[in-house]
């Protein structure tokens, strides 16, 4: 049985008639940039996330850049973030001319380790950027008295998100809340910061006549907003389905590999197991035509673009171990019990071969 790593189409297929209606509605209005669909999506997303307001933008990377810019974080400033995350987290910091300062992760949560963050604080630290990796809420890092910018690209609707000042989201099509293309969002609990972000995403202007900041052109299309409004109605159910599927994997795997530590707020954007035998297990999945992913190998501190930070192998032991051991199994809202049982039986056979 061929099983993909993520089946995006299975999630939106039942909604195609509604998506077509939304497309027709937008064609009728003739408004493709900003306008009522974008405004409604921002309001509905804010209400669902329980934040004062949200500002949409072109993608999750821009969302981080816009926040850093609005906070006037730039050259000479340091932002603490993990190295075990997608490149965009650190890239956005570097894009602003600021310095990404990596802190090692906790091996169980795979999120920033609080003690490691504390070790990396300097007078230049302007913000801390935890990542809600694979949909698991990062620990609360607001105790250091610094702004916390949550990179929640993988965790729309996860518990504990958006309790801080600002969180950023990505709607890349494999994310737990996705667009049919690119999209991003910033959730803000600070009206002045929101105003600046809103201006920055449109060339630093509120009026379209007066340009106050050197900004960006980073907008969510009206069409994508209209699709996202439909998906928003399903996100709570989809997140529940992901949690149910994760619980099922936990039972089926029964100690075969290290399964992810649960958290009530975890929305399982990915179901990420760990094993020292990862490469052999991955090869068995590949032979059986089962999709999987291994993430952040090499991790960010060893990426060519960030060589200027001067890191070497061994600098972040837990990050490097997680990078060698992680294996993300097929998961989406709607994966069947039969598909999950097949994944686990391939892994079982492979690990018996490893042991014999
Ligand atoms: C943790 C993390 N941060 C940032 C991003 C960037 O989002 P986008 O691809 O929408 O720019 C992603 C996803 O791609 C991500 O997984």
Describe the structure.
- The longest helix has 32 residues, at 222-253.
- Helices cover 39% and strands 11% of the residues.
- The protein has two domains: 8-228, Type I PLP-dependent aspartate aminotransferase-like (Major domain) (Aspartate Aminotransferase, domain 2); 235-355, Aspartate Aminotransferase, domain 1.
- With 356 residues, the chain is an alpha/beta fold.
- Helix 3 (36-49) runs parallel beside helix 8, helix 4 runs parallel beside helix 5 and helix 8 crosses helix 11.
- The strands form three sheets. The chain has a four-stranded mixed β-sheet, with helices on both faces. A three-stranded parallel β-sheet has the order 3-2-4, with helices on both faces.
- The model has no long low-confidence stretch (mean pLDDT 96).
- Strand 2 (78-82), helix 5 and strand 3 form a beta-alpha-beta unit.
- The chain is built from eleven helices and nine strands.
- The structure holds pyridoxal-5'-phosphate (PLP).
- Pyridoxal-5'-phosphate (PLP) binds next to helix 4 and helix 5.
What features would you highlight for this structure?
356 residues; alpha/beta; Aspartate Aminotransferase, domain 2; Aspartate Aminotransferase, domain 1; 2 domains; 4-stranded mixed beta sheet; binds pyridoxal-5'-phosphate
């Amino acid at each position: 049985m061929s099983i993909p790593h993520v089946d995006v189409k299975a999630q939106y297929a039942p909604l195609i008639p509604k998506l077509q209606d939304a497309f027709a509605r937008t064609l009728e209005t003739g408004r493709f940039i900003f306008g009522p669909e974008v405004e409604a999506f921002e309001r509905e997303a804010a209400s669902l996330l329980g934040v004062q307001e949200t500002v949409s933008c072109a993608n999750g990377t821009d969302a981080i850049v816009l926040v850093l810019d609005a906070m006037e974080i730039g050259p000479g400033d340091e932002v603490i973030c993990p190295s075990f995350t997608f490149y965009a987290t650190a890239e956005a910091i570097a894009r602003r001319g600021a310095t990404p300062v990596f802190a090692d992760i906790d091996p169980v949560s795979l999120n920033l380790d609080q003690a490691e963050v504390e070790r990396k604080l300097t007078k230049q630290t302007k913000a801390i950027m935890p990542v809600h990796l694979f949909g698991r809420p990062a620990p609360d890092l607001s105790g250091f008295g610094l702004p916390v910018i949550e990179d929640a690209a993988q965790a729309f609707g996860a518990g504990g998100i958006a309790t801080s000042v600002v969180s950023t989201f990505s709607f890349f099509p494999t994310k737990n809340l996705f667009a049919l293309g690119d999209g991003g969002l910033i959730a803000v609990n600070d009206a002045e910061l929101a105003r600046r972000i809103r201006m920055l995403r449109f060339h630093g202007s509120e009026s379209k006549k007066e340009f106050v900041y050197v900004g960006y052109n980073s907008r969510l299309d009206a069409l994508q907003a209209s699709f996202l409004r439909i998906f928003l109605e399903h996100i709570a159910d989809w997140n529940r389905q992901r949690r149910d599927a994760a619980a099922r994997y936990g039972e089926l795997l029964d100690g075969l590999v290290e399964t992810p530590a649960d958290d009530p707020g975890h929305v399982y954007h990915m179901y990420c197991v760990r094993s020292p035998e990862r490469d052999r297990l991955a090869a068995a999945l590949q032979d059986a035509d089962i999709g999987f992913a291994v993430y952040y190998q090499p991790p960010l501190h060893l990426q060519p673009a960030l060589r200027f930070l001067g890191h070497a192998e061994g600098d972040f032991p837990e990050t490097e171990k997680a990078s060698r051991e992680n294996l993300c199994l097929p998961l989406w809202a709607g994966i069947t019990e039969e598909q999950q049982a097949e994944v686990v039986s391939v892994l079982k056979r492979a690990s018996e071969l490893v042991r014999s």
